[in-house]
Structures are given as C-alpha cells and as structure tokens.
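hey so u asked for the seq, here:
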Amino acid sequence: MERHEEIQRSITKKFRKEIWKRFTAAVVKYDLIQEGDKIAVCISGGKDSTLLALCMRELQKHKVKNFELVYLVMDPGYNDINRQVILDNAELLKLPITMFESDIFDVVAKTDRSPCYLCAKMRRGYLYSRAKSLGCNKIALGHHFDDVIETTLLSMFYGAEVKTMMPKLHSTNFEGMELIRPLYMVREADILAWKRYNNLRFIQCACRFTENCVLGDGSGVSKRQEIKALIKKLRQTSPGVDLSIFNSMHNVNLNAVLGYTDDAGYHFFLDAYGKKTNGEGDDGE
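ran it, structure tokens below
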C-alpha cells in the first residue's frame, strides 16, 4: 500500500470512531450534502482543511450520494516555504488541487482595521467567487468542534451576543452558493492525533502578521487562544464542559432569555410578558 493510501485508510480504520463517524454524523445531522452538488473543498494548507479534503474524497468513494469535488487552494500571498508545503502535501496525498492567487495579504497590510477580520472576510469572498466560476454551488471549510465552542464563548464574552458558528449558511452576496462545515463534530485533539500518527507537516499560521506561530513559540496570544486556554482549564475539573457548550446551542430556551433577534427584528421579553397563560413561572427556580 502506498503512503497516500495508508494515510487515507487511517481515517476509516485507526480513527474511525474519532474522525470518520463524527464526520459522517455531521453530514447527515445537518443535511450538508445533496444529490448533484458540486463542492469546492477549500484547503488553506493547515491540518483541518487537509483532513476535510480526505474525508470528502472518502465519502465520495462510498457513493452514498452523487456529488462532485473541487480541491480549491487560494494563495493570499504565502511566502515560498508555506506555498511549497501546500504543494508537497497535495503531491503526497494525491489531491488534484486547483490553486489561484489573490492579493489579500497586501491589502490587509495597509488597513487600520482589524487585520484578522478583514482577511477572513476577503478570503471568504474570493473563495465563493472562484468556486462559483468553477460551477460549484457549495464551499466546504475545515472548522471543527473546538472552533464552534470557542466562537460561542467569544461571542458571549467579547461580542455581548449569544450565537455560534453554524454548520451551514447561505451566502448573502453570491446567489445560489452555500457554505458547509463537515468537520463540525470532529474534535481538534483527534485531528492532531491523526496528524501525528501519519507524521504529517502542515502550515500552522501562514499570515504575515503572525508567521512566528509557525515556530510554535506561542507568542502573539489572541482572544481565541485565551478562550481555548480557558476551556482547557475548565476540562480539568469538568471533562464534559465543552460538550455542554456545544449542546447548549442546540437547546436554547427562548422563554428564559431577556431578548433575541430573528429575521423580524429584535424581541424583548417584556413584549410578550403577561400574554402567555401556559403556567410558566418561578416555581422551578
């Protein structure tokens, strides 16, 4: 068996429970793939998006549904070393990538706004645009379980809002396009274990502003890294705390929040207070 076949096989054998079953569970639970889809799997060069590409290829081989895949790589201005890592991994894993270039890093370097926010927004736009030009109706991103719960807490702690990273979204600027996150239920620790098991090397942080992250020296701590450290600490005394955060976004009790927003606008709890006669009250508190 060739090396790329061993790596591919490890997903459904060695990491069947931790990765493959959770990946397929998310695809089914959130109805992420339909017959006839043409999906651009967006590969950044990191461990998450590369694993996603292999999982999507494996799912396609199982022929549960008929869909097409494009392995899309955008170069936003990587240095030569990072670009070569992506090309080497594509060759190693036999992924027929479609690569295109953009000037995102150059543009972000000149802004006074948050560079991370602008970079993420521009990346999304470029990926949607190129994917659509290739005939795709969806883009797939490599966000995982930990990204979801970290985003949930970031929104609460720093955004004063209860919201999470959704498993799929309709694009507001590219009609007919959709974003999906098939690794939604896969934990980062298991992705790291898969990476180490197969002795793989990926880009960790390719942004010009934070290239020191590639060295793994831990400098330049972000708000997300702070939240990640907090969750890690909470796990030490409450091992299931991360799953509780994740499940809470599936179980929002609108009768016990002060306000919420939907397509109709903002709703304050006093707007409906006194109008309900279903017996709810403070007896259970």
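The CA atoms of residues 139 and 179 lie 5 Å apart. Strands lie at 38-42, 68-75, 97-101, 138-140, 168-170, 178-180, 259-262, 265-268.
lmk if thats what u needed
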